[in-house]
Design a protein that fits this description.
heterodimer; A: about 220 residues; alpha/beta; Rossmann fold; five-stranded parallel beta sheet; four-stranded antiparallel beta sheet; 8 helices; 9 strands; B: 2 domains; 13 helices; about 10% strand
């Protein structure tokens, strides 16, 4: 049996809601294997982002465990969680989370700057160029300011940043939100290609075209 | 990209932060000026009535080293000829502030001097050497009819007497800020005081003469300074001119208004700028944390940014203010015991900004989910 890239086991997350409690996740479990692309759908406010953040090691569930490549991501140890996250997981946030006063290159190679030992400038530049080509922005100058890009280009830059460490797992929150149909389709194709190349992909989306390309779908109530 | 580069970007990236720092620096210097003006404006009123034929010394110290030399009279070479002149010339007097009384009383060597003549305040026009009945060991300077004892009356062989007349305008005394008159012989004894301020000595000399009459003495003092290569100079000037330069031309009300306005505006600018910087840095820190930056490194960077952006301009402004006014014979803006105040203010300001900032960072780094 092939070990899963990611195993979430009985995740539970509950928020206070007025006088009562609102259950976001109730014993949620999930396996993600290499080359697999899983889509998460559901109405707004059902906890898609919460689930993705937990799977990405950015949030801690109240109950349950998370295993990444066989290593338990203990929520009580933020440092270990950060190490696992940085080593294995690329996260594409819903908002893109780009540094608007920086260039394309500075945004994309941001994760590399925190590696120890840090890659050389030349290596960072080379990897940036390569990942820009992967996301279909090979002609874009890394020196170009991010705030001059279109919405589609910004999403691709954010995706390039999520991919620059060549993560085993890519988690994308609404990757095609606010994109036109053509740009959304191109981005969905990119994600599928990453999965086909061996990366485990989990994405949340309302876009049926994107969800159609997934191997499995999870619908949150 | 190095940490230093990122730090520089944090400072540069916040819109107007450099301008804000400059404003802080300027406001701090202005605040010092207004404080100094306010502190000494009280003496300006008495100056207007100053006798015309009264002189003093202006100290010009390009390197502003007097403040560092105060505890060692030997590092103020002009002290020796000045004290010699005090012992020889009857027109020279030493005028000291009331805070000197504490130092005088605290000095055990004075118990052995015994001949120190001190008179607090008074209406004294001429010196006499008459001892009051029963106090043969005490000497004073002034009219016995105007004197009253203050307690404790004895400290070894020393007796202190207070005059009941009006304070002479020439020394700028007020009811709240009396002065001590010390005779020429007593001035020599003052050099025995541990911790006495040597720079105050020159500033506290008054001569019942015109500035021209002090020309020879000034030349001797400057020669002594030249030989010691201090770069320090003394000028004989009319007392009115000297005291006006100390007090400035602002009235009390204006000085107080300027001080309060500076404080309020400075606080508003700092708070607004800190809020803006916090918003920008928080967004950046959140993104960098998600991309692998260590929380501890981000916290340290925040502290360093605040230190360079707030503390440094504040303290630089204070230092600039200090250096700008000290050589111009402005009096020390704060007593030595209060020199830690600017540092304390900077620290408090730093904490006021850093604590909420740090809490916001903690919230940003917390592993809590959001729906």
């Amino acid at each position: 049996m092939i070990a899963p890239l990611l195993h979430a086991d009985r995740l539970t997350q509950v928020y206070p809601d007025g006088d009562g409690l609102r259950v976001i996740l109730d014993g949620f479990s999930l396996y993600l294997h290499r080359g697999e692309m899983i889509g998460v759908s559901g109405p707004s406010g059902t906890g898609k982002t919460t689930l993705l953040r937990i799977l990405a090691g950015l949030s801690a569930p109240q109950e349950g465990t998370l295993n990444v490549l066989g290593e338990r991501a203990h929520v009580g140890d933020p440092r270990a969680l950060a190490r696992i996250r940085n080593a294995h997981i690329g996260y594409l946030a819903q908002t893109g989370d780009l540094l608007n006063d920086e260039s394309v290159g500075a945004n994309i190679d941001l994760p590399l700057r925190f590696l120890r030992p840090a890659p050389s400038r030349a290596e960072r530049k080379g990897r940036t160029q390569r990942v820009l080509a992967v996301v279909g922005l090979g002609g874009l100058s890394p020196e170009r300011p991010v705030d001059t890009l279109s919405g589609g280009q910004r999403r691709r830059v954010a995706l390039a940043r999520a991919l620059i460490r060549e993560p085993d797992i890519l988690i994308a929150d609404e990757p095609t939100a606010s994109l036109d149909a053509e740009a959304a389709a191109a981005l969905a194709t990119l994600l599928r290609a990453r999965a086909d190349a061996g990366t485990g992909v989990i994405l949340a989306s309302h876009d049926l075209d994107v969800l159609d390309r997934c191997d499995r779908l999870i619908r949150l109530p | 990209m190095s940490s230093l580069t990122r730090l520089g970007r944090d400072l540069r990236g916040a819109t107007g932060w450099i301008i804000t720092s400059t404003v802080i620096l300027g406001l701090t210097a202005g605040l010092i000026a207004s404080f100094a003006t306010f502190a000494f404006s009280g003496s300006s009123d008495s100056v207007r009535d100053t006798a015309h034929n009264l002189s003093g010394f202006r100290v010009i110290d390009p390197q502003a080293r007097i403040g560092r030399d105060v505890r060692d009279a030997t590092r103020l070479p002009a002290t020796a000829p000045l004290l010699d002149a005090l012992g020889e010339r009857t027109d020279l007097s030493l005028v000291l502030g009331a805070d000197y009384l504490t130092q005088v009383l605290a000095n055990p060597t004075l118990a052995r001097v015994g001949a120190l003549r001190i008179l607090i305040s008074t209406g004294v026009a001429e010196a006499t050497d008459q001892a009051p009945p029963g106090d043969t060991e005490a000497l004073y300077w002034g009219s016995p009819a105007d004197l009253a004892r203050i307690g404790p009356t004895r400290l070894g062989t020393l007796t202190l007497l207070r005059g009941s007349g009006q304070a002479p305008a020439v020394v700028g005394a007020t009811a709240a800020d009396p002065v001590l008159w010390v005779s020429p012989a007593g001035a020599t004894a003052l050099t025995l005081m541990n911790g006495g301020r040597a720079d105050e000595l020159a500033r506290s000399i008054r001569c019942a003469c015109s500035p021209d009459t002090l020309g020879t003495l000034t030349a001797t003092m400057n020669t002594a300074e030249d030989q010691a290569h201090t770069g320090r100079r003394f000028e004989a000037v009319a007392a009115t001119s000297l005291q006006r330069s100390r007090s400035g031309a602002l009235s009390d009300a204006l000085a107080l208004g300027l001080t309060l306005t500076t404080l309020i505006m400075g606080s508003l600018v700092v708070v607004a700028a800190a809020r803006r910087l916090r918003e920008r840095m928080l967004a950046r820190c959140r993104i960098e944390f998600r991309q692998g930056a260590r929380a501890s490194a981000l916290r340290i960077r925040m502290q360093v940014t605040l230190t360079l952006g707030v503390d440094l301009p504040l303290l630089t402004g204070y230092t600039v203010g200090w250096l700008a006014y000290l050589p111009a014979d402005w009096p020390p803006l704060l007593p030595p015991s209060a020199l830690a105040a600017p540092v304390a203010v900077a620290l408090i300001l730093h904490l006021l900004i850093a604590v909420p900032f740090s809490r916001a960072l903690t919230r940003a780094f917390q592993l809590k989910g959001s729906s």
